[in-house]
């Protein structure tokens, strides 16, 4: 499999999901923060950086509003699956991991898979954008807990 062109994927998702990408709370700025958080955690814990980066791009890309949007993770999963063969060129197991991370990011707290755990922690560490501090009991990795403790100072 050829390496993914993450910049090309970013540009494609931003154009395909233009409305969502411009959301104030769940749009591109949030996706970039999740990517930054995720890469920092991934380096510390050994998570798969490609999946972490793709999670950042996809996890909220199919929201239809900024409020409670039940099903947005599942819609993102359907979108990922529609692109899997022609655009993402990932192993089937990596697609499944990415899909699970996206579909479960709002309703599952913990994962034993370090890459999925990193994805969810990266998203939760960006909660201050909506006026909430991350609950360390809802974080999976020691690295994310350390970052959260620093936020409380």
What's the quick description here?
With 153 residues, this protein is mostly helical. It has helices at residues 6-16, 18-21, 28-45, 49-58, 72-88, 92-103, 114-124, 142-152.
What do these coordinates show?
By secondary structure, the protein is an all-alpha fold. It has a single domain, classed as Hypothetical protein af1432. Helix 3 crosses helix 7 and helix 5 packs antiparallel against helix 6.
Q: What's the layout of helices and strands?
A:
Elements: H1 6-16, H2 18-21, H3 28-45, H4 49-58, H5 72-88, H6 92-103, H7 114-124, H8 142-152
Helix pairs in contact: 1-4, 3-4, 3-7, 4-6, 4-7, 5-6, 6-7
Helix content: 55-70%
The number of E-state strands comes to 0
Strand-pairing-aware structural class: mainly alpha
CATH topology: Hypothetical protein af1432
Radius of gyration: 14 Å
* Total discrete domains: 1
Going by CATH, the architecture would be Orthogonal Bundle
Q: Please report the distance between the alpha carbons of the first and last residues.
A: 45 Å
The fraction of residues in strands falls at under 5%
Q: Main β-sheet: number of strands, strand sense, barrel status? A: none
Give the averaged pLDDT, no decimals.
96
CATH domain class: Mainly Alpha
Low-confidence stretches: none
Number of helices: 8
The CATH superfamily bears the name Hypothetical protein af1432
What spatial form do the alpha-carbon principal axes imply? globular
The secondary-structure element order is HHHHHHHH
